[in-house]
Write a structure and sequence with these properties.
The protein is an all-beta fold and 118 residues long. It is built from no helices and 11 strands. It has strands at 3-7, 10-13, 18-25, 33-39, 46-51, 58-60, 68-73, 78-83, 92-99, 107-108, 112-117.
Length: 118
C-alpha cells in the first residue's frame, strides 16, 4: 500500500532553515507528482509546493516563493522541502502528498511539526 513518511521537522528560530524529507513506498514513485502542504489549528490545509514526476517542473504558494525549494530523488523514492528564511507564520504541521490520479493529491503522510520561534 502507499506509504509516505515525513521527517525533518523541529523547532528553529526565525531566519533559520530546515529540510523536510518524505520517503515514499508502495507505488512507482518516479511516475507521479508530489507535493507539500501545511496546516495550522483551526485552518484548512494549504498547498505549499508541488513537483512533477521528473522534477523538471515545480510550483509554489506565493507565501513561500523564493524561500522554499521542493526537489526529489527518484532513485531514493524521496521528496524534499528545503525551507530557508523561516518565519513564525511558517509554523504548521507539514504533510507530504502524492498525486496518483493526475490532478488530485489523494495520499498523505502523517505530518511533521515545524515550529518557528520569533
Amino acid at each position: 500500500q502507499v506509504q509516505l513518511v515525513e521527517s525533518g521537522g523541529g523547532l528553529v528560530q526565525a531566519g533559520g532553515s530546515l529540510r523536510l524529507s518524505c520517503a515514499a513506498s508502495g507505488f512507482t514513485f518516479s511516475a507521479y507528482g508530489m507535493g507539500w502542504f501545511r496546516q495550522t489549528p483551526g485552518k484548512e490545509r494549504e498547498f505549499v509546493a508541488g513537483i512533477s514526476w521528473s522534477g523538471g517542473a515545480a510550483n509554489y504558494a506565493d507565501s513561500v516563493k523564493g524561500r522554499f525549494t521542493i526537489s526529489r530523488d527518484n532513485a531514493k523514492n524521496t521528496v524534499y522541502l528545503q525551507m530557508n528564511s523561516l518565519k513564525p507564520e511558517d509554523t504548521a504541521v507539514y504533510y507530504c502528498a502524492a498525486d496518483l490520479t493526475g490532478g488530485e493529491y489523494g495520499y498523505w503522510g502523517q505530518g511533521t511539526q515545524v515550529t518557528v520561534s520569533s
